[in-house]
Write a structure and sequence with these properties.
- It is a single chain.
- With 294 residues, the protein is of the alpha+beta class.
- The protein has two domains: 174 residues, Jelly Rolls (Sandwich); 91 residues, Orthogonal Bundle (Arc Repressor Mutant, subunit A), CATH 1.10.10.60.
- The chain is 44% helix and 22% strand.
- It contains twelve helices and nine strands.
- Strands 1, 2, 3, 4, 5, 6, 7, 8 and 9 form a nine-stranded antiparallel β-sheet that branches.
- Strand 3 and strand 4 form a beta hairpin.
- The protein is globular and about 65 Å long.
- It starts with 6 loop residues before the first strand and ends with a strand.
- One of its GO terms (molecular function) is sequence-specific DNA binding.
- This is Cupin domain-containing protein.
- Keywords: DNA-binding, Transcription, Transcription regulation.
- It holds the Pfam family Cupin_2.
Length: 294
């Protein structure tokens, strides 16, 4: 089997936790773990140090680190267990000490990692290698940005968010106001440009019209909510500035399926670990089950 020679991902799982549920204290002697919180709220303790569990934050857990966690409300996570084969890479990780918790302003990479891993259910021989490489990229990014944070006097979250600035203000305006009902006239008044000029700008820069671009943004955001949240269809519609009936029609016209069916298709793997190395299961000490007690 083709695998990366520096890092190997053994196990990925999308796990939803109910309120007041979690995992009791335990440790792994021979693997690392990264716990990413998609939504929800709770508390995790790693080696006696307590941290809040918050959306868009990742929690790096080294070998031998005792840890346990619980959630104060319904929460969704992506849990990754892996090993670092390269001694040089492992030394780098130990030396840099990835910040805990680590704010991931752009969570698309870790979600893409999970979606890629799903192909392993189809016994795709290339998938484990792709997952290794994608995750190594994420891990090195955490190391690099932790180093930048340590060398900077700025707060970590604002510093990272500033990297997402865009040189096309109208595009940025649409991204930041998906939850609003926006018309071409609204954009025109906000920027004091003629509607025809705005249309020409979008065609030059993005090869589409502003309203078509807004539709694409909304549907992509809706797909993310459907894949990685427990929001209802009406709540998702509200979050992207559309009525529920119009959202359902638009989604079907663009994706060829209903929002509900799309969610059902993506949820077939929720709570089911994706095993990338069959030898991992027999060598993994049994992790405590999800518990309804702290």
């Amino acid at each position: 089997m083709l695998r990366d020679d520096q890092l190997r991902v053994f196990w990925i799982s999308r796990i939803d936790y109910e309120k007041n549920s979690g995992v009791k204290k335990h440790y792994h002697s021979d693997i690392f773990q990264l716990l990413f919180i998609m939504d929800g709220e709770g508390v995790i303790e790693i080696n006696g140090q307590e941290y809040p569990l918050m959306p868009k934050y990742a929690y790096f857990i080294s070998k031998e680190n005792e840890h346990h966690f619980y959630f104060k409300k319904p929460s969704s996570t992506i849990d990754i267990k892996f090993d670092i084969i390269s001694s040089d890479l492992e030394e780098l990780i130990k030396t840099q000490k990835i910040q805990i918790p680590y704010f991931m302003s752009d969570s698309s990479k870790i979600k893409e990692l999970f979606k890629t891993s799903i192909h392993n259910k189809q016994n795709d021989k290339l998938t484990p290698y792709l997952v290794d490489v994608l995750f190594k990229n994420i891990l090195l990014l955490l190391v690099q940005e932790t180093q930048e944070i340590q060398n900077s006097s700025h707060d970590s979250a604002p510093a990272m968010l500033q990297r997402n600035t865009n040189d096309f203000p109208i595009q940025k305006f649409l991204i930041e106001n998906l939850h609003q009902k926006i018309s071409l006239d609204d954009i025109s008044k906000h920027f004091n440009y003629h509607p025809h000029y705005i249309i020409d700008l979008f065609k030059q820069k993005l090869n589409t019209t502003p309203m078509k671009y807004l539709q694409l943004l909304r549907i992509e955001k809706a797909k993310e909510f459907l894949e990685f949240s427990n929001l209802s269809i009406s709540e998702i519609a509200d979050k992207i500035g559309l009525s529920t009936p119009y959202f359902s029609r638009l989604f079907h016209s663009m994706e060829g399926t209903s929002p509900t069916d799309y969610r059902d298709q993506t949820r077939t793997v929720v709570g089911k670990p994706i095993i990338l190395d069959e030898n991992f299961i027999s060598s993994l000490p049994k992790q405590p089950p999800i518990s309804n007690q702290k």
